[in-house]
Write a structure and sequence with these properties.
By secondary structure, this protein is an all-beta fold. It is built from no helices and 11 strands. The termini are far apart.
Length: 127
């Protein structure tokens, strides 16, 4: 069974930086495309960023483009989301998600495309 565990969330001031991590266990991590999603209070969960299994292709929501960077370490079964220039509107629970990739450069921004999900980590940005 695939397990995803997020970590690294916390409280940060606006303009600051934070890196959240996701540890993946249970299957061959390098076969998985990975995504990051977030859910703010009272809002639906939304796409943040995604990365192909090769790491060669990434995608971002417009709201985070230029501020967030997704990366992965296939040698240590980790995926990361580096968040810079954080804003109060970035406050949310951040989830990582995984599914078997359809090709080395495939990823998806659609929640329903992902099969495995973590429990989430809270990120709070104060103004």
């Amino acid at each position: 069974q695939v397990q995803l565990v997020e970590s690294g969330g916390g409280l940060v001031q606006a303009g600051g930086s934070l890196r959240v991590s996701c540890a993946v266990s249970g299957r061959t991590f390098s076969n998985y495309a990975m995504g990051w999603f977030r859910q703010a209070p009272g809002k639906e969960r939304e796409f943040v960023a995604a990365i192909s299994w090769s790491g060669g292709r990434t995608g971002y929501a417009d709201s985070v483009k230029g501020r967030f960077t997704v990366s992965r370490g296939n040698g240590n079964n980790m995926v990361y989301l580096q968040m810079n220039r954080l804003k109060p509107e970035d406050t949310a629970v951040y989830y990582c998600a995984a599914r078997t990739a359809v090709g080395s450069v495939w990823y998806s921004s659609i929640q329903d495309d992902y099969v495995h999900w973590g429990q989430g980590t809270q990120v709070t940005v104060s103004s």
